[in-house]
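Form 7-S
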Amino acid sequence: MPNITVTPIAFHTAEVNAFIKFAWKIYKDDPNWVPPLMIDMKKRLNPDKDPFFTIATMQLFMAYQNGTPVGRIAAIENRLAMQVHQNKTGFFGYFECINNQEVANALFDAAENWLRARGLNMVQGPANPSINHEYGLLIDGFDDPPRLMMTYNPPYYINLIKNAQYQEAQELYAYKLDAANVDDNPKLPRIAKAAAQRYNVSIRPINLKNLKQDLSIIKAIYNEAWEKNWGAVPMTNEEIDALANDLKPLVEPNLAVFAEIEGKPVGFILAVPDYNYIFKQMNGSLFPFNFIKLYTQKKNIKWVRIIIMGVLPQYRRRGIDAVMYQHVIETSRKMGILYGEASWILESNVMMNRAAQTVLNGTVYKKYMAYEKQLHINANATGVTPV
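Output:
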């Protein structure tokens, strides 16, 4: 077999565009793939524009065979994650590869050697680029396009990663919520009504005109509600601001709401119409005219994704989550939306899984996996200086 070379890619160069565009080669014949917007990916991989780089260092790699690109990967040192979890775990992400184990191994070797050279002893992934972004490898549910901000990949990636000696670390679930199934379950409206009356719970939509203040509340709820979850890393103020800026054009205020008790926010839920239905038609380009579809095609969206749902620990087990779920379902129905996805939910999050199954009548229809690998000392691993 011809030699495989793996080359580090420098930021702020034309090679970054080639790194991004390589995905089109992998998915050119896949009807379910949703091409990312080039404008978003260029910002995501620009250390001067994405706040993730204030807490992390990243090195991109491309694999070539006879001068032809055949794979890509990113090695990621997330300093905040290591500080939170008191470990030396790095990450791999943005993995795309032809169906060839030798190419995959060469990519993993490059990323792992880079992490070793920085003193790290474990690697997890895929993280694009962190657990607060697109995360995990799709392992079940390949017959359907991904919902907004969810990962997608060919089935053969499972073997490429496992054969590179990665072990399963945590399974992630996506639940499908069908309007008919939700309506057949009397438990949700009953719990929601009882909780709202007993604890005087009110619902307040996010205020897009006073977004800065509401973002500070969301950050506090998010970081406290998820801090005990597997792999959780708090979002910085800058990351919250960047995410809000990206999602603001897509957010429906009545699908992004606070649960309040006596004026105090105790929970937050964010559901967003599945704009992947529209992005799929754009082939990665928002301009010159594709952005118009965000308005003309919006009425045809039939899915909504529940991205965030959190209740402060001291207010859990009171049905406050049901109040928020009921509100989102009723609002979605008025918009003509027929299906919802609650994702992703950790396999180890017993309470959330129970709620998705028994309260929302949801069924697991997609599964994702986070993998990990111990990085043993390699005398020949010199790594690659980040550029």
